[in-house]
Design a protein that fits this description.
Layout lengths: L5 E5 L4 H5 L2 H10 L4 E7 L3 H4 L7 E5 L4 H10 L4 E4 L4 H6 L6 E4 L4 H10 L10 H6 L30 E5 L11 H13 L3 E4 L6 H10 L4 E2 L6 H8 L4 E5 L2 H8 L4 E5 L15 E5 L22 H4 L3 H12 L3
């Protein structure tokens, strides 16, 4: 692989996928020290890359600047484009750029076979960063994890303590959410052991966090704002995060906060397990109906939701204690 001066990397969404590109950026700069790397993402995920010193420029797609952005990409005369999204929008944005393009293949067909027919061709598990790295021939992926750069003016809203346990109960789809009543039961048990519960999430997670907060009177509810850098600063103050398979799970990995991850309808073979960070994944491996989706569903197709219901608060607390006693 020959990379000369200027490279454009594209990953438009989502939060977890964007964070999972950060080892690629870092590894490229280690291997090609003079390489200028520009990154293109959606405006919503700007903060993942905004303060990354390894990037030369950050290009933002907001849904309304398609033509101007496409023109800018052509005028920038990149030596190569690495498209880690490889969808219709990313392909159209780079149309007319007469340069070498490296495109990510997500393995949609293998995932389809696993979901629909339970034919598992993904037993040779590969993390998403490893799959991203395979897009570029001869790239040496380093041994470090995810990263996010928090400016000095953004401080944690929490006092310094080793007793904070964060809950991130939200997820975009219902079948990826551990039941709120289980978070409540776990929280009450932890509070009785002198831990302080911190509730984290964005605007879409506020309703769930409010339900849990109402039952855990001594908890601190920091949900409701889509301020990624503030959430990252808060996570750094926590001992561990209990999370669903969600973007905040990956954000915790970027802040080096240990994770207890609860997987429901999705499975780690899809490549989105916590990356190179202290973690325990809890999942119901006895169910033949898992996985029922690549990204989650709005209801359980079998109507029993055993992938989450059978993962009781006692099971999660037992695994949480393993993490806590590892310090």
């Amino acid at each position: 692989m020959t990379l000369r001066k200027k490279l454009l990397i594209i990953r438009l969404s989502s939060l977890g996928d964007c964070l999972l590109t950060t080892p690629i950026i870092r590894s490229l700069k280690k291997q090609y020290t003079d390489l200028q790397i520009d990154f293109l993402t959606k405006k919503n995920y700007e903060d993942v890359f905004k303060y990354n010193p390894r990037l030369n420029r950050l290009l933002l797609y907001d849904g309304n600047n398609f033509q101007s952005l496409r023109k800018e990409i052509i005028q920038n005369k990149y030596d190569a484009i690495v498209d880690l999204h490889n969808n219709l929008i990313s392909n159209l944005l780079t149309l007319g750029s007469n340069v070498k393009k490296y495109k990510y293949r997500s393995g949609v067909f293998a995932k389809f076979l696993f979901v629909k027919f339970k034919i598992n061709l993904l037993k040779d598990y590969k993390s998403v960063p490893r799959k991203y790295a395979e897009v570029l021939p001869d790239l040496n992926l380093d041994s470090e994890g995810l990263e996010i750069f928090i400016p000095e003016n953004i401080k944690s809203r929490l006092e310094k303590s080793r007793n904070y346990i964060a809950f991130a109960p939200g997820a975009r789809h219902f079948t990826k959410r551990w039941p709120p009543e289980y978070f409540i039961q776990l929280g009450k048990s932890l509070i009785s052991k002198n831990f302080k519960i911190i509730l984290l999430g964005g605007k879409d997670d506020k309703a769930i966090c409010d339900i849990i907060h109402d039952e855990l009177k001594n908890s601190i509810n920091l949900s409701g704002e889509n301020n990624l850098l503030q959430l990252a600063a808060d996570l750094k103050s926590c001992t561990v995060l209990v999370s669903n398979d969600s973007g905040l799970m990956h954000l915790a990995c970027a802040t080096k906060t240990p994770v207890v991850a609860i997987f429901g309808s999705t499975v780690k073979e899809f490549g989105f397990s916590p990356y190179k960070n202290k973690n325990i994944i809890i999942e119901n491996e006895s169910l033949k109906c898992r996985p029922c989706s690549q990204i989650g569903k709005e209801k359980c197709p079998k109507k029993h939701f055993k992938c989450m219901i059978d993962l009781t608060p006692d099971i999660v607390e037992k695994n949480l204690n393993i993490i806590l006693h590892s310090f």
